[in-house]
Amino acid sequence: MRDKMSIKIGRFRDSLFWDVNSEKLDIEKNAEFIIGRVLDFGDLDEWEAIKKIYGLEKIRKTAQEHPFESQRSVNFWELILKLPPKSLSCTRKHLPQIPSAFLNR
After folding, report:
1. Do residues 16 and 41 touch, judged by C-beta distance below 8 A?
2. Which residues span the domain enclosing 32?
3. Could you tell me if residue 19 is inside a domain?
4. In this structure, how many other beta carbons lie within 10 angstroms of the beta carbon of residue 37?
5. Beta-sheet strands, E only, within the chain
6. C-beta of residue 46 within 8 angstroms of C-beta of residue 68
């Protein structure tokens, strides 16, 4: 447990957890929150840190339950995590397409 905690402190920026007290985050109890935050806003070092701490299977499972902010993130993580298309969800609703008949005026 001490090993994982030292990885957390050395690898994650405080600004990644701007809305919570990062010192009170528990590496095990708050795993889904930490993984989700890194998937949404993390950098390459933080990505490498969660891979070491949690492993790809835990990250894949967490990503499948995580509400991503954009379709671009969904597409990116499906490729990186080698998940089937449409296995991740986006919280944003897509606007309906305007029929092309209205654009040809």
Report:
1. yes
2. 2-13+25-91
3. no
4. 22
5. 67-68, 89-90
6. no
Instruction: Write down the residue that tokens 């008949």 correspond to.
Output: 101
Q: Judge whether 27 and 4 are in contact, CB under 8 Å.
A: yes
Residue 20 lies in a domain: no
| Among candidate residues 56, 12, 16, the one with its CA nearest the CA of residue 4 | 12
Give 67-87 pLDDT, tens digit per residue. 988 888 999 999 999 999 888
In a domain, 102, yes or no: no
Note whether 86 and 79 are within 8 A (CB): no
pLDDT, tens digit, for every residue of 49-63? 999 999 999 999 999
Predicted structure pTM score: 0.76
- The single-letter DSSP state of residue 12 is S
* Amino acid identity, position 60: R
Cβ distance 72 to 57 under 8 Å? no
